[in-house]
Design goal:
Elements: H1 2-11, H2 17-27, H3 35-45, H4 49-74, H5 78-90, H6 92-101, H7 105-129
């Protein structure tokens, strides 16, 4: 799904994504004039084509990473376990970014949970090496 979304963003970078958000909200029965949806639509409308392409490329890249990771885990490959630690650790970047921009207890909790997950994965990897 990430790869598909990323490809749409890359190929349709000059679309009015704000209007798309409003129409999508209306299609699923939400009121697009509500504050949260209206703010999201305004932010999507303000995105430059360059940023849309960057987000699309990130989505494609992360989707490929997750696909390779899933294949490796399915085939019980050791490298996939290491890749899982790397992929999970990559989530620290946006979590810390959001926490620095506007800290909330929920964001802090998400960062702590992610850190605990990474610590657990590293612990399991090290235990298997012994």
């Amino acid at each position: 799904m990430l790869i598909g979304i990323g490809l749409v963003l890359v190929t349709k970078s000059h679309s009015d994504w704000g209007r798309f958000v409003s129409h999508a909200a209306r299609d699923v029965g939400l009121d697009p004039s509500r504050n949260g949806i209206q703010r999201l639509a305004a932010e999507a409308h303000a995105l430059s084509a360059r940023k849309v392409v960057a987000f699309g490329a990130l989505a494609v890249g992360y989707g490929v990473l997750e696909g390779v990771e899933g294949y490796g885990l399915f085939r019980r490959r050791r490298w996939a376990e290491y890749l899982t630690v790397v992929a999970t650790s990559l989530l620290f970047v946006p979590e810390i970014w959001e926490l620095v921009k506007k800290p909330t207890p929920l964001k802090g909790g998400g960062l702590v949970v992610n850190a605990l997950i990474v610590a657990y994965l590293v612990h399991r990897l090290r235990r298997h090496e012994d």
